[in-house]
Amino acid sequence: MHDFIAHPEHGIVWISGASSGIGRALALQLAAEGYRVAVTARDHEKLAELQAQANGLAGSIVVLDGDVTDPEDMEHVLASIEYEHGTLALAIFNAGVYLPVHAEELKRDDFEQSFAVNVQGVVNCLIPAVRHMKAKGQGQIAIVSSVTGYGGLPTSAAYGATKAALINMAESLKFDLDKMGIRIQVVTPGFVDTPATRKNEFPMPSLISAEEAAAEISAGLKSKRFEITFPKRFTYTLKLLKLVPYGLYFRLINRSTGWRDRPLAGGRRSVTPHPAE
Length: 277
Hints:
Low-confidence stretches: 268-276
CATH superfamily: NAD(P)-binding Rossmann-like Domain
CATH class: Alpha Beta
Number of strands: 9
Radius of gyration: 19 Å
Oligomer: single chain
CATH topology: Rossmann fold
Strand content: 15-25%
Pfam family, one: adh_short
Number of domains: 1
Mean pLDDT: 91
GO molecular function, one term: oxidoreductase activity
Largest sheet: 7 strands, parallel
Keywords: Oxidoreductase
Number of helices: 8
Shape: globular
GO cellular component, one term: membrane
InterPro entries: KR_dom (IPR057326), NAD(P)-bd_dom_sf (IPR036291), SDR_fam (IPR002347)
């Protein structure tokens, strides 16, 4: 039963963080494939625009406003899905924030906000979703992490830590969810062209569009793979880097990003690009 793959006839898809970037593109991708997709975010206007954009597609989009940092909001979203829209077949927890961190200018709020949205926000969605799927005896969950969760990178002390936590969370939950008929996957994208990454001033290796990322995720959701990662040449290179000794790892990251040559102190801009939702 842990090989369950959600198809349109099985019920509704829920995507958090769907107002922009990967979440938005994925909602349209799945709606085009005939799925009914419930989208959640704090920006109602963007969600309404997304819903209108799906007009004429094989499937449809349902707007369910909510803030992932508010557990009651997420309980209400799941209740609305369950009692107004039908069975939750697939949940994709994508909401996240990227706040660059510089060691010479540490700010408590950067860490608190990152963990509140990227980690606790997933937990707030996960608890009602698993409860619903457990009662139905089947379901599928995908947690969107990032390759920054593989190892430390400049400015990612908060963002990367949250994404590493999500990878570990998905790995750990898989043991029990398998026995409950619920399939869990983790999504680890490389660099994706989103509003967050467009702020970067330096070239990003293997950059792909949000639409390309959505197509990759959609295909991965229909596979039996635990990890959905792309583009593979780039993401597997980062995986391999974690196998080298730390001394070499830090030298290679410094060389590839040019970080060692960047000055400390105020006024420095964030120049190292990062994958983001």
